[in-house]
Specification:
about 400 residues; mainly alpha; ABC transporter involved in vitamin B12 uptake, BtuC; globular
């Protein structure tokens, strides 16, 4: 009986990881192995880096009570339009432009955060208005035209590859070495965390389960880096994604400020009564979303090598979908950055796999919409069952 309970708990905890593995295997079989070719593995990162960045920021909005930001795609376009205008038409230095784009993103986040946090206008309304406003402003800035090409200095930061410092011939040694180092650091963090919890008398995961999980994660990371090493190595966009995920994973799991987002989503009234400034938490969520939308704008401009008025279309849907598929609750208070990684990867695999198979764009939207609905239904039903059991 206990084994059955443990198996059901493991399945529930890692449902989306299992689904992701099944989908990868399915697409690999359907595409005759093309899905896992080194170049396609690289494309998975290059084409979906914006999803990882935006979904990480979207998670913090959702944590505050299931709130979302519908404007992020338009903000990506708006920030990219201003950056393109500065660099391509006015000859600004790429580094100055990056700072300006980040500041604009922060100001946009502060604008929307003010109305949501302090005037208490529903986030759906504020960000829907932002979606329309910033898309329109993007067209005003660009005058309906595409600006290109982007200066080489900017492209090197976001759309290039980390050089192989060991001079591998046909195989990027630096890339694979980075994978080994990442696994070593992860193993050290996990065991150091276990030791710290045991010293404080906290309950820890059984050693066998922890070792199996470590083995699987490290095997996946090494296989992924091996494939990248067979192509051109580590894309700069992956470095940006890794840094952002690392910072926000730490904030969400190890800081008091990060726990406030969970507290507000769990029970805002109780959180407020405990002395936490809930208005500030809401404001920070959308301020942060503005900053990450600006980073996604930089990545998008570099990938397209242009600033165009259609950039960022449906980006908000991919970000929201990645969060809910990755285990974030539609009610708020539940969700993790690693879960978002799984959700964003699943969205990227769906995009890449269906594109390789030549699936019609409209059918791709149907599939992604179905996966998103299934993830939310699973969340709602499982919570309802938990409530009934209690």
């Amino acid at each position: 009986m206990e084994n059955k309970i443990k198996i059901s708990e493991v399945f529930k905890k890692y449902t989306m990881v299992i689904v992701l593995a099944v989908i990868i295997i399915l697409f690999t079989a359907k595409t005759g192995g093309k899905m896992l070719l080194p170049q396609n593995v690289n494309n998975l990162i290059a084409q979906n880096a914006y999803v990882f960045v935006l979904a990480t920021g979207m998670l913090f909005c959702i944590l505050t009570g299931g709130n979302i930001d519908l404007s992020v795609g338009s903000v990506v376009c708006f920030v990219g339009a201003i950056g393109g205008k500065m660099m391509i038409e006015n000859g600004f230095n790429p580094y100055v432009t990056i700072v300006a784009m980040a500041v604009i993103g922060i100001l946009v986040g502060a604008w929307q955060g003010f109305w949501i946090a302090y005037v208490r206008i529903p986030p759906f309304i504020v960000t829907l208005a932002g979606m329309l406003m910033f898309r329109g402003l993007s067209n005003v800035v660009l005058q309906g035209m595409t600006l290109s090409p982007v200066p080489e200095g900017f492209l090197k930061l976001f759309n290039n590859y980390v050089p192989d410092f060991f001079g591998g011939n046909g195989f990027n040694i630096t890339c694979f070495g980075a994978g080994i180092l990442a696994c070593a650091v992860y193993i050290f963090i996990v065991f150091a965390g276990r030791k710290r919890k045991q010293a404080k008398g906290y309950r820890v995961e059984p050693l066998t389960g922890a070792v199996v999980k470590l083995f699987v994660i490290c095997a996946v990371v090494l296989a992924f880096m091996f494939r990248l090493a067979q192509y051109k190595g580590i894309p700069n966009s992956l470095v940006w994604v890794a840094v952002i995920i690392g910072i926000y994973s730490y904030i969400a799991s190890r800081t008091t400020a990060g726990r406030y987002f969970y507290a507000v989503g769990g029970n805002e009234k109780a959180t407020k009564l405990s002395g936490i400034n809930t208005n500030l938490v809401y404001f920070q969520a959308y301020l942060n979303m503005g900053l990450l939308a600006a980073v996604a704008g930089m990545i998008t401009v570099a990938r397209l090598n242009s600033a165009n008025p259609t950039a960022g279309n449906s980006y908000e849907m991919d970000a929201i979908g990645a969060c809910f598929i990755g285990g974030a609750s539609a009610y708020g208070g539940v969700g993790t950055v690693p879960g978002v990684i799984v959700g964003a990867t699943l969205m990227g695999v769906l995009n890449l796999g269906m594109s390789i198979m030549g699936v019609d764009q409209n059918l791709q939207k149907v599939v992604k919409g179905g996966v998103l609905l299934a993830a939310v239904i699973f969340d709602v039903v499982s919570k309802r069952k938990s409530f009934i059991v209690k």
